[in-house]
Design brief:
The protein has 81 residues and is mostly helical. The protein is built from 6 helices and no strands.
């Protein structure tokens, strides 16, 4: 991933998670990626699910893992900035 548009385009993963809820678990390892855009995408992909009150556990785990991430793009994806 290279930039905001590409990363947030990956948030289309949210549609995949909506159709196959078990896919949310696949985002957990992304929180440990050396790529900040991938870490951001782990959080951004679940925004739609959060709005619907779904995937609470995955959302909380991802947010907890990324809460202290030093990269500002990750922080903005998690809502920390």
């Amino acid at each position: 991933m290279r930039d905001w548009a590409h990363c947030d385009g990956v948030s289309l993963l949210g549609a995949a998670v909506r159709n196959e809820p078990r896919l949310a678990e696949e985002l957990l390892p992304w929180t440990e990626s050396p790529n900040p855009w991938k870490r951001r995408a782990a959080a951004v992909a679940l925004v739609g699910e959060a709005k619907q009150g779904r995937q609470r556990n995955a959302i909380l785990v991802i947010a907890d893992r990324l809460l202290d991430d030093p990269d500002d793009v990750v922080q903005k994806g998690v809502g920390g900035c």
